[in-house]
Amino acid sequence: MKENRRDRLDDLYRHYARPLYYYLYKMSGSKETAEDLTQETFIKATVSLSFYKQEDVRAWLFKVARNAYLDEWRKRQRRKKVPFAGYLFSRDEMTSPYGLPEDEALNKESKKKVADLMSCLPEQYRSILYLREFESFSYSEIQEALDLSENQVKVTLHRARKKLTQLADEHWREKHD
Predict the structure, then answer these.
(1) Closest Cα partner for 22 from 142, 135, 139, 153?
(2) CB under 8 Å to 156, separation ≥6 — which residues?
(3) Disulfide engineering: 76 pairs with which of 3, 45, 82, 152, CB 3.0-4.6 Å?
(4) For the chain, what is the largest distance between any 2 Cα atoms, rounded to a whole number of angstroms?
C-alpha cells in the first residue's frame, strides 16, 4: 500500500510539477519562489493524496498551488518587500530551435506584450486566464481550482478577457497617438 502511494505521488510529480512551476512562476515572477511553492504544493499533496480521485487531482493541485502562492504573497505584502506587478512575467520565453528566428522574435515580443498586459490585471483575472488559456482547464476544473461556482467562472473569465482587451486597446492607442 505504501509503495502504491509513493508510485502515485511520483506519477503526479512527473505529470504536474512543470505546469505547476510555470503557473507559480508566472504568478510570482520569481524562480526561487516558484520552486519553493511547487515543493510546498507536493508536500501538501503527500498529506492529502488519499482524499482525491485521479480525475480531480489536476484542478486540486492548482488550487493548492494558488493558495500557497496567495499565502506567500500576503506574507510579503505585510512586510512591504514585494513590488508585485513589476516583476510578474519578466522571464525570457523559451524559443524553439526549429522555427525561423524572425518568427520566434515576433512571437516572443507578442508573448511579452500579453504578459505585460496580464501583469496589470487583478490576481483572480490573471489566474483564471492563465488556467484557461495556458493550461487549457475546463470550466469545471477552474471552478474546482478557484473555489467559484460555474456561473462565477464564466462571468469572471468574460470580465478578465474584456479587461485584457481594454488594456490592449489603451496600450495600442497610447502607442499610436
Answers:
(1) 135
(2) 124, 125, 128, 148
(3) 82
(4) 66
